[in-house]
């Protein structure tokens, strides 16, 4: 693509010389990935300043550089005020607006985004569509999976991924949209057809200055759905009517709103909810029909996820019977309420709950059916929201018979200091601290008796433990199975 065409996305750039006829073979924000003929974009990041790598980019064959200040290089430099802001428009032009060529569902909210992406994948697949998913676990295009660094990747990765999806015939892409992504404009230019809100509770107050700032970031998904209504390409907002922030979000969008809920009046509701130890059933009532749903998914929070998925599917014109069939068949997501079955006489559940609200949801779900005691192993991530630590520890103590506090990705923080934050204000007879996560899991397994449930919370699908800057192999599910074997309790 000609540099001039690419720069049409940026009306206010300055250039050091007239080099618009240059052919650009690719665009990258990482000097280590620069290939011959690429445009290298310098981002002044949280860790390093990408401008420092301009020379390296040139040496690797970059054809031009987009930067915020003049640079001492011999290739053309295009100057803009804010390179991070320029990224999404450039990515959209370079990959030729792929999101316009398929249906895109964007999901935001504190908890439930990943769970919902896979629920929607099942629904769209039941409708015989080819699907793509981008989120915390991976990018998935039909059956192929690709690693991702972020829940919502940067605009270049995102638009490149969308283009690949379109090229491979994907009909519907379902993406998680994190508050960080909204704050940093990662989804600018993405033509989102249905925006879904799950819920809002405390998380990420390390990144966002206040809870209001966090809410405001989430609301951007809805305000950015556009101000004009096109009956040929309608856009919808799907909003949890029971959430405290529902009304504010409804006001933030100019597009038609579909609400769902259990407690408040809504377009899509669940009644007669039965929560059991092997799943959930409820009566689904929607403008398109009613049906009794029996699902393998556990807990009231998953009823909310199913209602939200129904809303998004109805807004996408999926037949009601297809939606119901998919809900009945779906089996859940790796690391979300995932049982570990190694022949032991008690239950072991691995769950990604890493916020006070999700921990409470998971523990109250377990409490609703457990016959014995609840033993919870949980830690809090390092270099993340410190204020959620005592709240998570409080929930663990409130709903467990034994709470074992341990490490969860301490990253560059002192693991002991994280544990200190967790136990602040708690009676010392209410918990035990076992800093090493494998030992904590072993301790929980050794304590467990028949009919008890061990909840191992916080890491879910993760297959690593980040200590300092080292990423070490660690998988709660495998460690729990080994602990059961070591205790001689398995098959
Ligand atoms: C604060 C933040 O969002 N940072 C993101 C950002 O990194 P950054 O700009 O700070 O990067 P940096 O390391 O300082 O480097 C600056 C620039 O120099 C470049 N560079 C660097 C080294 C080099 O040798 N050459 C080079 O060119 C880098 O490619 C980058 O362009 O851009 C990177 C590439 O897109 C992201 O991976 C990175 O996410 C980091 C890992 C992160 O932790 N982000 C969190 C806050 C986040 O976004 N989380 C949400 C999850 C929320 C949820 O729980 O749902 C998410 O969406 O993932
Ligand atoms: N609708 C919901 N409301 C509250 N808690 C939920 C809901 N759905 C799932 N959870 C809980 O939150 C945990 C994380 O769920 P999930 O991974 O789907 O959320 P997420 O929004 O993708 O999280 P992240 O911000 O890390 O990407 C689950 O393991 C479960 O404990
Ligand atoms: N997306 C979340 C995941 C948290 C998972 C938990 N295991 C941790 O490391 O804190 C975050 O980065 O805040
Ligand atoms: Mg997620």
Automatic annotation (TrEMBL):
<feature type="modified residue" description="N6-carboxylysine">
    <location>
        <position position="218"/>
    </location>
</feature>
<dbReference type="InterPro" id="IPR036565">
    <property type="entry name" value="Mur-like_cat_sf"/>
</dbReference>
<feature type="domain" description="Mur ligase C-terminal">
    <location>
        <begin position="335"/>
        <end position="460"/>
    </location>
</feature>
<feature type="binding site">
    <location>
        <position position="150"/>
    </location>
    <ligand>
        <name>UDP-N-acetyl-alpha-D-muramoyl-L-alanyl-D-glutamate</name>
    </ligand>
</feature>
<comment type="pathway">
    <text>Cell wall biogenesis; peptidoglycan biosynthesis.</text>
</comment>
<dbReference type="InterPro" id="IPR035911">
    <property type="entry name" value="MurE/MurF_N"/>
</dbReference>
<dbReference type="GO" id="GO:0008360">
    <property type="term" value="P:regulation of cell shape"/>
</dbReference>
<feature type="domain" description="Mur ligase N-terminal catalytic">
    <location>
        <begin position="24"/>
        <end position="93"/>
    </location>
</feature>
<dbReference type="InterPro" id="IPR005761">
    <property type="entry name" value="UDP-N-AcMur-Glu-dNH2Pim_ligase"/>
</dbReference>
<dbReference type="Pfam" id="PF01225">
    <property type="entry name" value="Mur_ligase"/>
</dbReference>
<comment type="function">
    <text>Catalyzes the addition of meso-diaminopimelic acid to the nucleotide precursor UDP-N-acetylmuramoyl-L-alanyl-D-glutamate (UMAG) in the biosynthesis of bacterial cell-wall peptidoglycan.</text>
</comment>
<feature type="domain" description="Mur ligase central">
    <location>
        <begin position="107"/>
        <end position="313"/>
    </location>
</feature>
<protein>
    <recommendedName>
        <fullName>UDP-N-acetylmuramoyl-L-alanyl-D-glutamate--2,6-diaminopimelate ligase</fullName>
        <ecNumber>6.3.2.13</ecNumber>
    </recommendedName>
</protein>
<dbReference type="GO" id="GO:0008765">
    <property type="term" value="F:UDP-N-acetylmuramoylalanyl-D-glutamate-2,6-diaminopimelate ligase activity"/>
</dbReference>
<feature type="binding site">
    <location>
        <begin position="151"/>
        <end position="152"/>
    </location>
    <ligand>
        <name>UDP-N-acetyl-alpha-D-muramoyl-L-alanyl-D-glutamate</name>
    </ligand>
</feature>
<comment type="similarity">
    <text>Belongs to the MurCDEF family. MurE subfamily.</text>
</comment>
<feature type="binding site">
    <location>
        <position position="458"/>
    </location>
    <ligand>
        <name>meso-2,6-diaminopimelate</name>
    </ligand>
</feature>
<dbReference type="GO" id="GO:0009252">
    <property type="term" value="P:peptidoglycan biosynthetic process"/>
</dbReference>
<keyword id="KW-0573">Peptidoglycan synthesis</keyword>
<keyword id="KW-0961">Cell wall biogenesis/degradation</keyword>
<keyword id="KW-0436">Ligase</keyword>
<dbReference type="InterPro" id="IPR013221">
    <property type="entry name" value="Mur_ligase_cen"/>
</dbReference>
<dbReference type="Pfam" id="PF08245">
    <property type="entry name" value="Mur_ligase_M"/>
</dbReference>
<keyword id="KW-0460">Magnesium</keyword>
<keyword id="KW-0067">ATP-binding</keyword>
<feature type="binding site">
    <location>
        <position position="384"/>
    </location>
    <ligand>
        <name>meso-2,6-diaminopimelate</name>
    </ligand>
</feature>
<dbReference type="GO" id="GO:0000287">
    <property type="term" value="F:magnesium ion binding"/>
</dbReference>
<feature type="short sequence motif" description="Meso-diaminopimelate recognition motif">
    <location>
        <begin position="408"/>
        <end position="411"/>
    </location>
</feature>
<feature type="binding site">
    <location>
        <position position="178"/>
    </location>
    <ligand>
        <name>UDP-N-acetyl-alpha-D-muramoyl-L-alanyl-D-glutamate</name>
    </ligand>
</feature>
<feature type="binding site">
    <location>
        <begin position="109"/>
        <end position="115"/>
    </location>
    <ligand>
        <name>ATP</name>
    </ligand>
</feature>
<keyword id="KW-0547">Nucleotide-binding</keyword>
<feature type="binding site">
    <location>
        <begin position="408"/>
        <end position="411"/>
    </location>
    <ligand>
        <name>meso-2,6-diaminopimelate</name>
    </ligand>
</feature>
<feature type="binding site">
    <location>
        <position position="462"/>
    </location>
    <ligand>
        <name>meso-2,6-diaminopimelate</name>
    </ligand>
</feature>
<keyword id="KW-0963">Cytoplasm</keyword>
<dbReference type="Pfam" id="PF02875">
    <property type="entry name" value="Mur_ligase_C"/>
</dbReference>
<dbReference type="GO" id="GO:0051301">
    <property type="term" value="P:cell division"/>
</dbReference>
<dbReference type="InterPro" id="IPR036615">
    <property type="entry name" value="Mur_ligase_C_dom_sf"/>
</dbReference>
<feature type="binding site">
    <location>
        <position position="31"/>
    </location>
    <ligand>
        <name>UDP-N-acetyl-alpha-D-muramoyl-L-alanyl-D-glutamate</name>
    </ligand>
</feature>
<dbReference type="GO" id="GO:0005524">
    <property type="term" value="F:ATP binding"/>
</dbReference>
<dbReference type="InterPro" id="IPR000713">
    <property type="entry name" value="Mur_ligase_N"/>
</dbReference>
<dbReference type="GO" id="GO:0071555">
    <property type="term" value="P:cell wall organization"/>
</dbReference>
<keyword id="KW-0132">Cell division</keyword>
């Amino acid at each position: 693509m000609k540099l001039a065409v690419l720069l049409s996305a940026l009306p206010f750039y300055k250039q050091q010389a007239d080099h618009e006829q240059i052919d650009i073979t690719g665009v990258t924000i990482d000097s280590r990935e620069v290939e011959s003929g690429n445009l290298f974009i310098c981002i002044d990041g949280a860790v390093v300043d990408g401008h420092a790598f301009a020379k390296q980019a040139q040496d690797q064959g970059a054809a031009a550089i987009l930067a915020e200040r003049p640079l001492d290089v011999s290739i053309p430099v295009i100057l803009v005020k804010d390179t991070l802001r320029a990224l999404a428009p450039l990515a959209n032009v370079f990959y030729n607006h792929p999101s316009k060529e398929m249906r895109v569902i964007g999901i935001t909210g504190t908890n439930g985004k990943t769970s919902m992406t896979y629920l929607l994948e099942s629904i769209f697949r039941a409708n015989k569509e080819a699907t793509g998913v981008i989120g915390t676990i991976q990018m998935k295009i039909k059956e192929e999976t690709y690693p991702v660094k972020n829940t919502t990747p940067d605009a270049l990765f995102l638009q490149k991924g969308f283009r690949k999806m379109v090229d491979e015939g994907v009909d519907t892409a379902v993406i998680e949209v994190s508050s960080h992504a909204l704050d940093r404009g990662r989804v600018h230019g993405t033509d989102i057809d249905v925006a879904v809100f799950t819920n809002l509770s405390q998380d990420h107050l390390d990144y966002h200055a206040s809870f209001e700032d966090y809410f405001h970031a989430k609301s951007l998904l809805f305000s950015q759905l556009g101000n004009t209504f096109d009956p040929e390409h309608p856009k919808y907002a799907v909003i949890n009517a029971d959430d405290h922030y529902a009304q504010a979000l409804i006001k933030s969008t100019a597009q038609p709103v579909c609400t769902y809920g259990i407690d408040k009046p809504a377009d899509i509701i669940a009644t007669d909810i039965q929560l059991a130890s092997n799943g959930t059933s409820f009566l689904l009532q929607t403008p398109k029909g009613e049906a009794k749903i029996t699902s393998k998914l556990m807990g009231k929070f998953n009823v909310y996820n199913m209602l939200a998925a129904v809303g998004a599917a109805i807004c996408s014109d999926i037949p009601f019977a297809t939606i119901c069939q998919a809900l009945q068949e779906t089996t859940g997501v790796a690391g979300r309420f995932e049982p570990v079955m190694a022949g032991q006489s008690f239950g072991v559940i691995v769950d990604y709950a890493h916020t006070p609200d999700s921990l409470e949801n998971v523990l109250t779900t377990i409490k609703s059916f457990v016959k014995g005691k609840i033993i919870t192993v949980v830690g809090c991530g390092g270099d993340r929201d410190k204020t959620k630590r005592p709240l998570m520890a409080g929930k663990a103590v409130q709903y467990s018979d034994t709470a074992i506090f341990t490490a969860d990705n301490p990253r560059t923080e002192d693991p002991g200091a994280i544990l200190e934050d967790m136990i602040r204000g708690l009676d010392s007879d209410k918990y035990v601290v076992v800093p090493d996560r494998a030992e904590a899991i072993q301790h929980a397994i050794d304590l467990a008796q028949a009919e008890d449930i061990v909840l191992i919370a916080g890491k879910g699908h993760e297959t690593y433990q980040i200590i300092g800057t080292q990423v070490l192999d660690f998988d709660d599910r495998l460690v729990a199975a080994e602990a059961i074997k070591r205790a001689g309790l398995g098959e």
